[in-house]
C-alpha cells in the first residue's frame, strides 16, 4: 500500500513524501456502515490539489487537526470497489467507480460514503473516469453562476485561461448553448490551440499589448456582461475594467500572481458584483441537483471523452515528475497518477 503525504505546507517537491507499507489495504478500520473501500487505479493532479499542499499565497498555513498528522492530497479518482460496509447494496465489490469528494486519493486505497462512489459507465476508460467529476461538476457550478449573473441576457461573456481543462469545457458548453464567449489565453501558441478547437469563438492572447482593446472591439457597445476568471491576482483590476456597468466577475481560481485590493475595484460606482465559485461547496447543493450534475458528468464522459484530455500519466511513486508536468506551461489536459492493477488486487476489476 502506497500513500503520498505531507505534514506541513510548502513546495510540493519538498514536502511530499511516499510512504510504503507491506500490508494492504491500509491497516486500521475498513469501510464502516454505509461506506465502501475503493482500490484506486487513477487520480488527477488538479491545480487545487497543489494549493492544498502549498497553501494560497498570502494566506496563513492551514492548521491540521492534529499537528503531526499526515495529510494525503487529492479529492478525486477512480478505482474498483474492494469491499463494502454494512448496509451497502450498491456499488458492489469489483465494480468500477469514480469518487468525489474523497479526500486523500493520492493513495492506493480510500474509504468513501457509498453515495459518493459513482458507477463508471461501460465503455468509459479508466483515465476518462478519473477526470469525470471535478471539472464537469465545476462547469455545472460555473454555468449556474453565469445564468444567475446574465439574468436572461445573452452575453458577451469573457473567460480567462481558456486553454485550461475547465476552460475547454466552458468553450464546448458555449458552442452547445449558443453562448457568446470571448476567450483569453496568455500566449500566442495557446491562442492557436483554442482557435483550432473552437473556430467560431474569438481568442485573444494577453501577451498582446492591446489585448484589452481587442476584447472591447469583440464585446461591442454592450460591453462584457460576465467574466469567468481563474487567473485573478493583479489581472482582476483589468478584467473589472472590461465589464459593463452592472456586470459580474465570477472568480474560481488563482493561477496568476500579484494582488488587487478590493478598494481598487469600481464595485459601488459601476454596480459590479464579484462572486466566488468553488467545487468545495458542491455538497451543499440539493440531492436532486447533485444527482443531475452526476448524470451530466457520466454522459459527458461517455459522449465526449476528448473534453477530459489527459496531459500525461505517471506511476503514483513518480508524483514529483507528475507535479512538475502539471505545472508545465503550454500543457493540454490534466496529469494523472496511476496504480497498476496487480495480481493481489483482491476482488479485481470487472472490466
Ligand atoms: N473553484 C473550483 O471549484 C475549481 C475547480 C476546478 C478548477 N479550478 C481552477 O480552474 C483553473 C484551471 O484549472 P484546470 O484544471 O482546468 O487547469 P489546467 O488544465 O492545469 O490548465 C491550466 C491553464 O492555466 C493557464 N495558466 C497558468 N498560469 C497562468 C497565468 N498566470 N495566467 C494565465 N493563464 C495561466 C495555462 O496556460 P498555458 O497553456 O499558457 O500554460 C493552462 O491553460 C485553476 O485555477 C483551478 O484551480 C477551480
From TrEMBL:
Keywords: NADP, Oxidoreductase. The lineage of its organism: Bacteria, Bacillati, Actinomycetota, Actinomycetes, Kitasatosporales. Residues 1-34 are annotated as: Disordered. It comes from Streptomyces olivaceus. The keyword Kinase does not apply. InterPro entries: ADH-like_C, ADH-like_N, ER, GroES-like_sf, NAD(P)-bd_dom_sf. Transmembrane segments: none annotated. Residues 13-337 form the Enoyl reductase (ER) domain. Pfam families: ADH_N, ADH_zinc_N. This is Zinc-binding dehydrogenase. It comes from the Bacteria.
